Amino acid sequence: MKLAKTSHCRHHQINSDSSPSSQIFPSNLSALNLLNLPFRQLMDSEQRRKRKRSLRTSPSPHSHCGFSVRSLLLCLSFIFVLLLLHRFQIGRASFHPVVIVSTLSHLSSSTSNSIRDYVSSRFLLPLRVEDRILFPDHVLLMVSHVNDRSEVLECVYGKDNGVQAANKLISRPVLSVDELDELRWVARCPLPPQNYAAEVNLRRPPRKESIVEVDEWQRQVHPAVHSWEMMAYAAALDRDSAVVFVKGLNLRPNRESDPRQFSCHFGTERDGGFALTTRAFSAAQEVVRCSLPKSIRMNPSKAHGIRVTVGLNSHFHANARASNHVLVPSVAKMLSPYNSDQRKKDQGKHQLCVCTMVWNQASSLREWIMYHAWLGVERWFIYDNNSDDRTEEVIQELELEDYNVSRHTWPWIKTQEAGFSHCALRARDECNWVAFMDVDEFFYFPFPTRRRGGSNKPIVRGQNSLRTLVANFSSTNIGEIRTACHSYGPSGLNSPPSQGVTVGYTCRLQSPERHKSIVRPDVLDRTLLNVVHHFRLRKGFKYLNMPQSTAVINHYKYQVWEAFRAKFFRRVATYVADWQEKENEGSKDRAPGLGTEPIEPPNWPLQFCEVWDTGLSDFVLANLADPTTGLLPWERPLL
Fold first, then answer.
1. CB neighbours of 553 closer than 8 A, spacing ≥ 6?
2. Least confident residue range of 2-6, 170-174, 445-449, 588-592
3. pTM listed for this prediction
4. pLDDT (tens digit, 9 = 90+) per residue, 589-599?
5. Cα separations in angstroms, 37 against 25, 28, 34, 489, 615
């Protein structure tokens, strides 16, 4: 007997037989045969023929959309059989029915989402805090098994005065979560409240049924808290050597130190220590370079995830043994070479890249990147030093607009020079030239040049002119191009200029201050020594001072007070005092006459204004503004 007609609700209604037996028992008895019920013996052939005729002609008062009472009973009977088979095992194997959820399921999407969220939350790996670093204004946790940056996490604090006092735990929202590298994430927690320990832990907000208990807190392993005053914080694999970045060595700036007082030590989590040791062969500022152990040198992939630190001898002498060195606490791990991606190598190098370090510079990034892209910059490395504004969001927007920008988490405060050394290593295999500059600094070609051949019509340097300039020196012994900086003041403004700094600030100091550099990363000295954005070069290479008649940098250093006062929080450079510190108050790195308090001086809008210079402002409006709307590329149209 075919039941196909009972499964459709389009044009057919099905009635059951008028006899009692046909109303109770469905015609297809294959499922009920599992219960060994002898129904076929109760019905003769005449009854079956009669039921066939009834099914074809009689509508059923009990059916609706093809589901008769008999079909319902059949389904219930089938489920009952499955339950029986599941309850009583047959042989040694259990029968486990597989439930296939139809795409026409009546479950609401919100219900299914809730189920999915519940299941996914149960399968998240537990957070593992590997290290803790105590900074002046926060505690940094090195964490594994974070799901993503959007994951909500809490910082948990325990009492500092004994186990009994630990009965009270408190939690605070995490300040930020970021991906550090391929192995770890970093979470920034507020400093512990008074009488609470710095052994901060991290957890996902507990459900009502799974609150973290004090006993569980005491069972957890709490790694020691490292002081930021002395620690190895980063490492890189550079061909046949290891480069380790160390805070607290107190080496003199802009000088190479004797490397014989240092050694490098390598180990894994399983080793429980540092099993391999090599000697250092260069040291400068915060960067120590050592040879690789033979096992890693023969197979560089073994370096991935290895922890490395630096040993130092406080009583240094030429014959000091590495085994006598005191090891610096370390959170530094080496990774596989930066440029293992063969696709990048196949594409060839970029002619011109830029590296910078930022803290809360979201408002400046669009103008700075778009302007220099017009001049020919092809790639940007943004080292983010704990920004909590829209920096990441702006970078993501620029990436979607096809600007080749990458953001790199760099949580180490006041390490700009070390960060630039790190960036030089990262950029070397991708870029022929790298400019090291800040986001308030803009290259500018102030004077047009005359055409050759006697023509009096000047050449105005335009699109891609900066890339063309550096390319002319790629096959020479010039390894660094230095360009003088002109410092601009608030230019009479009281609020940030709506069209950007290049258009709004037009009054500057007469004499240039300092310079910034574009370097060839493949000809840098092995120390990676750099101070105020210029590097030491290998022997055989020299730097070129760019004439001011050819190129300058407009440094919008002293902006309106609203923007300038943010610098008082802290500065990213290692060897430059913060504004509030009473140290080197007469330095060019400070604002003359400002002092150490973030209080707006009298007549600030007219300070640092000796020469009105509208050159770059006029150039930008003439060359980059949209001819129809007048908007510059970084301006947002009004909707």
1. 437, 441, 442, 443, 444, 483, 484, 485, 486, 515, 516
2. 2-6
3. 0.76
4. 556 666 667 78
5. 11, 13, 8, 99, 100
